[in-house]
Amino acid sequence: MQTLSNWYNKSKAGKLKGTESYDAKHVALIEENNKLKQQLKIAEMKRELLKKAAAYFAKENQ
User: Fold this and answer.
1) DSSP states along 3-60
2) Which carries the bigger pLDDT value, residue 20 or residue 52?
3) Can you say how many angstroms the Cα of residue 14 is from the centroid of all Cα atoms in its chain?
4) CA proximity to 15, closest of 6, 24, 23
5) Domain map of the chain by residue range?
6) CA 2, CA 13: separation in Å to the nearest integer?
7) In this structure, what DSSP letter does residue 61 have?
8) Which of 6, 11, 20, 59 could form a disulfide with 16 if both were Cys (CB 3.0 to 4.6 A apart)?
9) Rounded CA gap, 36 and 15, in Å?
């Protein structure tokens, strides 16, 4: 149990690897990047749906 306590204390102090604090600009860039990735995923899904719909209607009209 002592190890868990040590990890927690190091994490709170910012000394545990991977838990370093980032400046506000870095955090803002990470959040913006995540938002843009989500928007790109949605746009790609919409594009694929429109491709399928266009192919379906083109096939139906023949």
Assistant:
1) HHHHHHHHHHHT-STT-----HHHHHHHHHHHHHHHHHHHHHHHHHHHHHHHHHHHHH
2) 52
3) 23
4) 6
5) 22-62
6) 17
7) T
8) 11
9) 31
CA dihedral 30, 36, 38, 43 (to 10 degrees): -170
Q: Cα 41–21–19 angle (5° rounding)?
A: 80
pLDDT of residue 59 exceeding 80, the answer is yes
pLDDT tens, position by position, 9-42: 776 666 666 656 667 788 788 899 999 999 999 9
Contacts of 21 (CB under 8 A, 6+ apart): 14
Question: Hey, what are 22's tokens?
Answer: 């980032």
